[in-house]
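Board notes, transcribed. Complex of a protein with magnesium ion.
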Amino acid sequence: MKITSIHEGTLPISSTIRNAWIDFSNMDVSIIAVVSDVIRDGRPLVGYGFNSNGRYSVGEILRRRIIPRLLVADPADILTDDETNFSPEKIWDIVMSNEKPGGHGERSVAVGVLDMALFDLAAKVADKPLYRFLSDTYGDGVPDEDVFVYAAGGYYAPGKGLPEVRAEMQGFLDLGYNVAKMKIGGAGLKEDLQRIEAAIDVLGDGSRLAVDVNGRFDLDTAIEYGNAIEPYNLFWYEEVGDPLDYQLQSQLADKYPNPMATGENLFSLVDSRNLIRHGGMRPDKDILQFDPVLSYGLVEYLRIQEMLREYGWSSRSCIPHGGHQFALHIAAALKLGGNESYPGEFFPTGGFADEISVENGRIKLTEIPGIGLEHKAEFYKHLRALHA
Ligand code: MG
């Protein structure tokens, strides 16, 4: 059993939207295809991966460091001990050889893109949808049959006023979502409160709206906004300060009694552990958003889950960033609290299988082997073109 070739490329997911820090006009992602010599139905099994939105493509690191290390590895060293499948864990150690600790930068994204493709491939070798493969391999064998998803939107965009915010939120309800998220911190407090109230007016209750600052605020602004939004009893108050400013997070926790969420820009076990140790996050109410693709893949995410257990956190406190089908399978298999979803953004990579819709805020999984990216027709054309 061998990997015969690996193909990577770049796909634009450009958009006119913006949050409090960045616009997405030049956003792109890396895509990858890992081709094996395992033949099913007359064709080699291929694993596919890509990085979730918010971090740019990482082709240089993939081409110069990560992929070559895997291609020169002894085929016997990349298999499970019983040699019945590829081992993403063993491959993780191989591709991370000669890499210093710390300073994770974009390297964690490159490893995550490959890791996604390897898990897609391994599930296909096992002939199981990824969530069942992961549940059997790492979980209790009884995965969740559906997953809570919330609609992440509410971006700032040219010409977008309160009527457009209302229409967007109504659209999320019409699609079957119960909870939505909007960006704040990209306008003044007065305007943001008007946007929040417009959204709540449509959603029906503040507990159905999360707000996301994308790391924009200093402590004073974080507390000023926190005091202003506290009466709304929002679903959560997300990434309020710089993702690595654990003291700010902790000081905010002293002042803001309602749920906080953060973690999408922490890219390693060690960074995640620092948040748990020093960030004042409260296991009974706060949410952890580590993204399995951006942070060195599922191999590292499993280590993060182990760490969380040691610190007394439930897997249900995790709702990953990214809105992608990989994390959806992980959420079902590891019994997370849910998964992000971007109904209107990041075409064609974002979102889930074409035939699956949200019902009462929850979504089911694909039952074809692997992640099921073959059932995202527009995206699959790009993935298949990598190697066809
Ligand atoms: Mg966010």
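The longest helix spans residues 107-125. Residues 11 and 29 are 5 Å apart (CA to CA).
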